[in-house]
Amino acid sequence: MSKYSSPEWSDVKPIPLDEGPGQGPALAAIAYPEAYSEAMCYLRAVMAANEMSERALALTSDIISMNPAHYTVWLYRAKILFELEKDLDEEIQWLNKVALKNLKNYQIWHHRQLLLSKYPSCPLPERPFLAEMLSLDPKNYHVWSYRQWLVSHFSLWDDPLEYSYASGLLDEDVRNNSAWNHRWFLCFGKQEAEEGRDPRAMKVIDEDVIEREIGFAKEKVERAPMNESAWNYLRGVVRKGEREWGEEKGWVERWAGKGTRGWEREGVKSVFAVEWLVGVAEEEGEEERAREMLRWLAERGDPIRRNYWNYRKGLVGGGKGE
């Protein structure tokens, strides 16, 4: 017996799928499972009537269990929830189960944003659940995007829990680019958003934040000198602070080696340190020294990116690249 043949649905006339003009079946019809096709027929009927009811809500649950990527169903579900003034805490508990079964589903996280937008502050269970999701996939783009929205929406920029969480992930895996990106977002996201809204806004550099983040990045470089993520973060912070590359020259040279020319081809601990010193050499007007280091990077240090380093070499002195 059909699930929707009960008396509860007897007043609804299901609307079949319209597969376009012409007589007979479509040339390449999608072979939907029978249960899904039936549920969708009833969904079209209740949506056409703009029905806001418990049975319509249950119908969306049924369809989502079969096709959690159906964006229209999610929007309809949210509309019903708000119209009936349902308990959103219960909805979030239901949503958690769906999310754990569908780790890479975008619609789930948009629905979650709609729900959390109704809260005056971030619910206490929210971030522990996000941690659970990221423990299953530390680089889940949808979860990280949602977490950034959460920080922005509830103004959690300076929340110690956010910093400690990102730092903890980097302690576990210093190459976690998602965690590096989140830390950057916490430090500079608010300012960048304000500058984006009003380019005329006065740019303010918080020297304490710059110093703190330089120290943080250096600590991670110490752990893994060939980790490009930490070097990129350090470069970004120095640039954000409008400082010159040469201000960190003494520390960077520890990883590039030292010789009669201030560096040497053998014993280099990090090609990213050599790249940094290229910038220092350009600042100091030592163009030939910069080319020499870029030549070494192309031929010996990092030959897999030979074309890039040769291109950079062509830019030295205001060139257009090679």
Compose a concise summary of this entry.
The chain has 322 residues and is an all-alpha fold. 62% of the residues lie in helices and 0% in strands.
SSE blueprint:
Blueprint: H1 34-48, H2 54-66, H3 71-84, H4 88-101, H5 106-116, H6 126-136, H7 141-153, H8 160-172, H9 177-197, H10 207-223, H11 228-240, H12 249-256, H13 271-283, H14 287-301, H15 306-315
Helix pairs in contact: 1-2, 2-3, 3-5, 4-5, 5-7, 7-9, 8-9, 10-11, 12-13, 13-14, 14-15
| First-last Cα distance | 72 Å
Q: How does the helix and strand content classify structurally? A: mainly alpha
Beta-strand content: under 5%
Say how many strands there are. Answer: 0
Low-confidence stretches: none
Major beta sheet summary: none
The best one-word shape is: elongated
Number of helices: 15
User: What is the share of helical residues?
Assistant: 55-70%
Helix and strand run? HHHHHHHHHHHHHHH
Q: Average pLDDT across residues?
A: 91
Rg of Cα set: 28 Å
